[in-house]
Amino acid sequence: MSEGAGANLKEGGLHAPLRHPLDWKNPDFYDEEKLDAELRRVFDICHGCRRCFNLCESFPTLFDLIDESQSGELDTVQSEGFKEVADNCTLCDLCFMTKCPYVPPHEFDLDFPHLMLRYKAVEQKKGETSWISGQLSETDRNGKIASVAPGLVNWANHRDNKYTRPILEKVAGIDSRTEIPQFHGKTFLLRAQDEKIVINTTAPAYGRKAVLYATCFVNYNNPDLGMTARRLLAHFGIETEVVYPGCCGMPQFEQGRLPQVATSAQGISEAMKPWIDLGYDIVALVPSCALMMKFEWPLLLPENGTIQKLAESTLDLSEYIMTLQKSEGLPAPVNAISDPVTLHIACHARAQNMGRKAEEMLKLIPEIQLNVIERCSGHGGTWGFMKEHYEVALKVGKPVAQEALKYQPAVVTSECPLAATHIAQGLEVLEPSQGLMPTQHPLEILARAYGVL
User: Residue 13's pLDDT is what?
Assistant: First the structure.
């Protein structure tokens, strides 16, 4: 949200907090003395409040750093210690959106995630980030390469592979126990070109049109989800086109590579503009990508009208289905699903401030037994893959796994595919005999209820 959009907001209200545009083109943004002064101002406020202590590893790291210093206050903490605090921030935005009482319009004007982003951007500018992490963040390029020989790549990435995974851990830092998503040779884009979709002309929403922004993950790692989305939306009367101009830039954003993200935002928004002009809604299939398009890109390039227009036209997948339900209406599901389902509300779905749309969507299904968990899974994008973070990622996600285990679900689901798998791995740690529990996207469960999967 831009600065001016919420000029009438008051502290303590129920509105989304304000967020200022990122001043990343200003040389002061990279001035280390000014950054250190701002870190100390914000950290002092956080240390005095501690409301966010249980959200992630950043805040316990910060509080321990200060508590264990000579004076027990920030004045005796060396700035070198701030790096670990920033490294443990995965930009989930939950502190900003759900906990912090000092976000704008409060006079303290505190935005912890974007301050950590600034820290990472300074590291990038100084060339202090690892070459390997930069390569791992190139998800679009890596997907293209892997799709050439997916069988070989999936064999090498399999966590039971005792030959390749130790090498991958040593060379790339990816923990050998991490479940890595599989790759596919026939991407979502290719499948969409080959499969003719029949649109339900009797559905209430017939006549609406949507572009599905494929995203790196769905295009290369889970094209079945994309095809299921097309079929289900066709059942709802929606004509869809699949468009994938490139990665939204979230993996680079997490590393502070802001010029690269801005370039991606400009390219994708230009590619989407003709579709918006033709009356298509833009639907992002992964919450992190929707968050980038709706909120982070406009803050990076607030002067860019094409990006602003795309942000206003973009909806998260679950949000889009519930919009259809409330505007035109949906056909009735044909199947009840009585298996217990544990639904995790993804952090980047929460950060979009749109309500728990996945829960609303699944409650359309007759007889569904739903256990909803709204807590950090601990994964945090590529952060949770890494050897140095894997154990912490499991620790942060352990309460989610414990809550899920009590419910004994038949399936674990989350709009965030990495979070769902991470929760399943947490369950496997708690109950090794059960192995890795299957996961599904909430849309796939809804598609079962409509008989299209």
Answer: 59
CA–CA separation, 307 and 121 (whole Å): 22
Q: Are 307 and 269 in contact (CB under 8 A)?
A: yes
Specify the range with the lowest mean pLDDT, choosing from 11-15, 60-64, 370-374: 11-15
Report which residue type is found at 132. Answer: I
The C-alpha atoms of residue 18 and residue 20 are separated, in whole angstroms, by 7
Q: What percent of the chain has pLDDT over 70?
A: 96
The Cα 86–Cα 136 span in angstroms is: 19
3-state secondary structure of 174: strand
Per DSSP, the residues of 379-430 read -TGGGGGBHHHHHHHHHHHHHHHHHHHHH--SEEEESSHHHHHHHHHHHHHH
**Could you give the CA distance from residue 414 to residue 422 in angstroms, rounded to a whole number?**
10
Please determine, for residue 336, whether its predicted confidence score (pLDDT) is greater than 60. Answer: yes
CA–CA distance, 286 with 284 (Å, rounded to integer)? 6
Residue 12 banded pLDDT, cuts 50, 70, 90: low
